Amino acid sequence: MYPFIIIVMLLVPASALGSEDQSSPEEVLTLEQAVALALESNRLVKNAGLEVSKQEDSLMVARTRRLPIFDVKVFGSILLQPIDFTFKQGDFGTFPGGGPNPATDVRVTTPRQFNTFAFISVDQPLSQLYRINLGIQSAKVSSQLAGEELRLQRQSIAGQVKAAYFTVLQTQSALEAVEQSIKLYHELDRVTGDYVLQKVALKSQGLEVKERLAKAQYESLKLHNAIRSQKERLNQLLGRPISTDFVVSPMPQMTVFEMDLAAAQARAREQRPELREAQLKRKQAELDRRSKKAEFIPDISLSYRYLSPFSVDVLPKNISAAGLYLSWEPFDWGRKRRELATKRTAEQQASNAAEETESQVLLDVNTRFRKLQETREALHVNQLGQETEREKLLVLSNRYTAKAALLSDVLQSEANLAQANHEYREALASFWTAKAEFEKALGEER
Q: Taking a C-beta distance cutoff of 8 angstroms, is the pair 361, 268 a contact?
């Protein structure tokens, strides 16, 4: 009976063994669901989305500068001292009848009372429209940059979620292997206990099995705690309460871009927000240079002015005029020329940065692609090693139950399997990490 029990125990899938010892939460969280939840609820992603809204509002503000500018000013005051006007006799010439105009000296006094003046101006930009349109284009670029920052934040969060998800998978895999070892040690402890009673095994051998069982149980406790902490970290990235319980599902299948470097490079050129950002910054630098150059053009506006001194009796109540208003600074001591040279330098820097960014992106994709290839092969090798050690332990356990093998051989084989399991988990972790980094290099959001 013993061989049958051990064979069944070792052949049962590790996931089934793990599920027997703990009550499974209702929610099974797939990698796709985790990424989707994070992109919807993560607080950093939400802030990046709000920044996009801010830049869209700024674009609408820039467009209003093409419309007429209305300015209304009202000045209410009391004179600090009276204003007196004296018109001498004959200041305005003579009347047609020959008398002086005015006939006598006339004194006009403005009393010290509350006075109100109204100033209204309306200016429609004309020559400035070229520079204003450049500013609108620059605002559009800023809005697009905010959109690329949102994409970059989404991709960053997606990468962090994948890394956290893979960490939970790795620890869960380690826990399943330890739980499998605990079941083996329980059976060995029972069999060895019988042998000790039958005096075909030493008491020290029975204690050695108990010691290994206790160590495995301690390791199981540590892994349980690690999984709890890792799930809390993942919940925090998903923007939900950290106490939310869930189980993770196995890894998704490989995509075609993991097998074709040229396709991966094309995908990265299309999706990496860093490339789009660099191109937009180069365009923005060009618009800044053109806008600075446009400052050499005089500002000409179609203007309307209105003045009304309500409380001054001697002046007209409504004074208005319409015409063209020109503003120009003919001498600036070389300031504009130097500023334009600075803008040209910034444009060249942005162009160099765009080329450098593309090189870095392609280098990143190539490196991650090769690393993923290496880790996939290493995982295959370690998987074969794990299966080999598992078969060896199965044979020795069967022979030990039939009293045809020593306990030390079984324990050594179990130690070899534990080492193989450890190497497999390390290879698996390296593969999952390389996969997440490769997808991030491609600019994947999901």
A: yes
